[in-house]
Structure formats: C-alpha cells, structure tokens
Design brief:
This protein folds into 2 domains: 1-32 and 80-120 and 165-247, TPP-binding domain (Rossmann fold, 3-Layer(aba) Sandwich); 34-77 and 122-159, SIR2/SIRT2 'Small Domain'. Helix content is 35%, strand content 18%. The protein is built from 9 helices and 9 strands. The strands form 2 sheets. Strands 3-2-1-7-8-9 form a 6-stranded parallel beta sheet, with helices on both faces. Strands 5-4-6 form a 3-stranded antiparallel beta sheet, covered by helices on one side. Helix 7 runs parallel beside helix 8. Bound molecules: zinc ion. The site of zinc ion has 8 residues, from loops.
Length: 247
C-alpha cells in the first residue's frame, strides 16, 4: 500500500470545505460488478449501451426493467465497505463535506452518508417516463413494468441513460461545492466520464488540493497533488487514522 504523505494529513487537518467524488471502483470493492462486467448469463447477449438508453426502454421496457431489477437485487445483496464507512465519517469532520457519486447503487446512503449527490441517479428509485414524477416505492405485479399512479405512464429507473443529461440540480450543487472547496478527493473513478470527470479539474483551477485514490493510474493522476494507488477500502480508513492521530 502507498505510504501516506505527511503533507496530505496536514492539508486534511486544515481543510474546511471538502468534496469527494466516487466512482465504480468504490462499489467494486463491495463485490458489485462494473456496468460491463455485470453482463453474465442471460444478460451476456446484451451490451449495456443497448439497455441503458431511452430508445431501449421505448423498444422493450420489460427487458430494460428486468435488467435494472437484476442490478437492484445485486446492489441490495452487497454491503458498504470500509471506504464507504470512512466517507460517512468524514461528513462530520469538516466545516462542510460534500459527497458526489457516479454510483447508482445506494451504498453510500446505507453506510450512513447524509445528503449524497447522485450525479447519475439511483437504481433504488424510479420516475415516470411520461410525467417525470419521482417515486421511492412502487407496486410491481409479477415483475411487470409498474405504472405511474398519477398518469398511468410507465415507471423507469431514476438513472441517467446514455444520451441523457445529468440531473441539473445535482450537477449545479456539485459545481458549487467544487468551486468552494479547498480539498477535492477523486476516488475509484476512471476520470473519463464527463461532465463528472471535469469536476476534479475545476477544483484544481480554483486552487484546491486534489487527492486521487484509484487502483490504477488515470488521466487525472499526473495532475493530482497526491495520487494514491490502491484500494479505497484500505486507504480511506488509513487516512482517517492518520488524521485522528495527528490531532
Ligand atoms: Zn406519470
């Protein structure tokens, strides 16, 4: 495991506004397959790009609904890992702490993180494909795509599909927090999916310290103030231990 730089712990001790952006790597450590790796068994015949689109839902809503039902079951069977728990603890350590995630599985909330900003939505709730009303729960009869109680339209997972924009309120909150932060963590994310990936660069432009935690190098690595290579489930608790020990 990478040694923690003393400078990083000093930065953490003096930081007031902290933002963390998490991606698939954090969920992977809870045993959740990435989008692409999830295509096994019956689902191996489909590419995610052919299921996670508005066109796919229009063409075959039942197929798309079933795929998300499978992924929801996987997410519910997974448990938050020490990285999720460390991020939940960080919420109480700074004047402000904003957690942004590209993950749709709800594991941060289950770890106890308050006010998670879900940039790509969540598979744990739905919205109406016709009238856009959101629902946290729904009636499902023998696995059929449920209907909106208000307008009888089809309910769809409340996630961002290929070709769709990020939810504007979530994106604006993410930008506001990023522009105000003095420390930005990019954790378990490839740094390739925009606009979420551009947040780390926006933080740098505003003079924030950028800490990257990832299993491998990414396009962001060369720009990071501190780049830590390894598992977030090990590195984040180690960072918190060092932070507490230094106080
Ligand atoms: Zn509706």
């Amino acid at each position: 495991m990478t040694d923690l730089p003393n400078q990083l712990i000093d930065t953490l001790r003096t930081a007031r506004h902290v933002v963390a952006l998490t991606g698939a790597g954090v969920s992977q450590e809870s045993g959740l397959n990435t989008f692409r790796d999830a295509q096994v068994g019956f689902w191996a015949q489909y590419r995610p790009e052919d299921l996670a689109t508005p066109q796919a839902f229009e063409r075959d809503p039942q197929l798309v609904w079933d795929w998300y039902a499978m992924r929801r079951t996987q997410a519910r069977a997974a448990a938050p890992n020490p990285g999720h728990l460390a991020l939940a603890e960080m919420a109480s350590l700074f004047k402000s702490f904003t957690l942004l995630t590209q993950n749709v599985d709800g594991l941060h909330q289950r770890a106890g993180s308050p006010a998670v900003i879900e940039l790509h939505g969540s598979i744990q709730n739905v919205r109406c494909a016709s009238c856009s009303l959101h629902y946290d729960s729904w009636q499902e009869t023998s696995g059929e795509v449920p209907h909106c109680p208000a307008c009888a339209g089809l309910l769809r997972p409340n996630v961002v599909w290929f070709g769709e924009s990020l939810p504007s309120a979530a994106l604006q909150s993410a930008l506001d927090a990023t522009q105000a932060c003095d420390l930005f963590f990019s954790i378990g994310t490839s740094g390739l999916v925009h606009p979420a990936a551009s947040l780390a660069y926006a933080a740098l432009e505003h003079g924030a310290c950028l800490v990257e935690i990832n299993a491998t190098e990414t396009p962001l690595t060369a720009h990071a103030t501190h780049a830590l290579t390894g598992s977030s489930g090990q590195l984040l608790p180690a960072i918190l231990n060092a932070y507490h020990a230094a106080r």
